[in-house]
Write a structure and sequence with these properties.
The protein has one helix spanning 9-18, and strands at 2-4, 29-31. The protein is an alpha+beta fold. The protein has one domain. The protein has a two-stranded parallel sheet with strand order 1-2. 0% of the residues are buried.
């Protein structure tokens, strides 16, 4: 699963579709806004990979 803000989900899905021939396994794009309740939408991850993750200075405290 890859996550980002709601407005970026279509772009993530486009990237998945365009690169599907390179992918193994399964992947899906989901919206996630740090600091908001997920209501059990996500299970506890085995791995977390962050890249270019600080768009808004106000969410920096949620990383720690």
């Amino acid at each position: 699963m890859i996550t980002d803000l709601e407005e970026f989900v279509p772009l993530m899905q486009l990237n998945i579709d365009v690169n599907s021939h390179l992918l193994k396994g399964s992947i899906r794009a989901e919206a996630l806004c740090w600091g908001t309740p997920t209501n059990g939408q996500f299970s506890f991850p085995d791995y977390v990979l962050l890249a270019d993750c600080i768009y808004y200075e106000a969410v920096c405290v949620l990383l720690f």
